[in-house]
Write a structure and sequence with these properties.
Layout lengths: L1 E4 L19 E5 L7 E6 L4 E5 L15 H13 L2 E4 L5 H10 L3
Antiparallel strand pairs: 1-2, 2-3, 3-4, 4-5
């Protein structure tokens, strides 16, 4: 599964202390929690920015009375964005895979 997330959307929508995504991102996830998630944005030059957003934010009771905790956590995510090069795929193989997707 995938979803588009717009710039300005809170990184953790469950806490008002969350900082916002500074750019539009895509979030990929599997059908099971164990599959995890990948949150990234494209730079348009063969590289992507990877945001290390957790699949689960843990026990909300830990920070519900102190939004500064989630602000610090989401700030760390923004300050530690990793840029990675993505090797281009074979155009015919990519087209074949895309044709099988139900978008």
């Amino acid at each position: 599964m995938w979803k588009k997330i717009s710039a300005g959307t809170p990184i953790n929508a469950l806490d008002e202390g969350s900082l916002d995504y500074p750019e539009n991102v895509i979030q990929l996830s599997g059908s099971r929690l164990v599959d995890g998630i990948v949150t990234y944005s494209s730079n348009g030059d063969g590289t992507i920015n990877i945001y290390t957003v957790p699949t689960r934010w843990g026990n909300p009771e830990i920070y519900t009375n102190d939004s500064s905790i989630i602000e610090k956590e989401t700030r760390k995510i923004i300050e530690n964005i990793k840029t990675e090069y993505v090797e281009p795929g074979d155009a015919e193989q990519v087209a074949s895979i895309i044709s099988k997707l139900q978008l």
